[in-house]
Amino acid sequence: MVEIFHVDITSIQPSQLYISKKKLQEVQKSLNPKNRSLGILIPIKEINGKTIFVDGHTRAVALYLLGEKTIPVYWEYEDLDWNAYENCVRWCEDEGVRSITDLAKRIVSHEEYEQLWYKRCDELHVRLDLERRNSNRSP
After folding, report:
1. Fold of the domain built from segment(s) 5-137
2. Are strands 107-108 and 70-75 parallel, antiparallel or unpaired?
3. Considering all CA atoms of the chain, what is the largest pairwise distance in Å, rounded to the nearest integer?
4. CA–CA separation, 123 vs 87, rounded Å?
5. Which of 131, 119, 124, 55 is nearest to 87 (CA)?
6. Residue 32 has what pLDDT?
7. Segment 36-59, tens digit of pLDDT
8. Cα gap 5→71, rounded to integer Å
9. What is the DSSP string of 94-123?
10. pLDDT at res. 139
11. CA 68 to CA 81: how far, in whole Å?
12. Could you report the per-residue pLDDT of 16-31, keeping only the tens digit for each?
């Protein structure tokens, strides 16, 4: 059973550099007006001593923009590509995105989002796959 708890919305390190304005507007339309965080659960993970968003950046920004101070989260235990997440967190740190406050200032058109974020992530996965293949060939 997943344990759900609330944390300070600004205490979690993003692992994403941009938010799509289109996706944000869709999330904002779907929020329950009486209980805005109802149905929203954000997975988090501790990596290198930092608690990071695994997913749900757009939902978190939507709640933050509405003035929410806490966010419902759960620990992610699924085996994901944590090496990729480490790279994404490093990108965020390098560009000064250290909390949802910083990420909320990086809302871009969906077209820009695809170019700036999806493309960069695709290139990262290609590079990581190549590195893994090359390391498996080493004697």
Report:
1. 3.90.1530
2. unpaired
3. 61
4. 12
5. 124
6. 78
7. 777 789 999 999 999 999 999 999
8. 8
9. HTT--SHHHHTT-EE-HHHHIIIIIHHHHH
10. 58
11. 30
12. 999 999 999 999 999 8
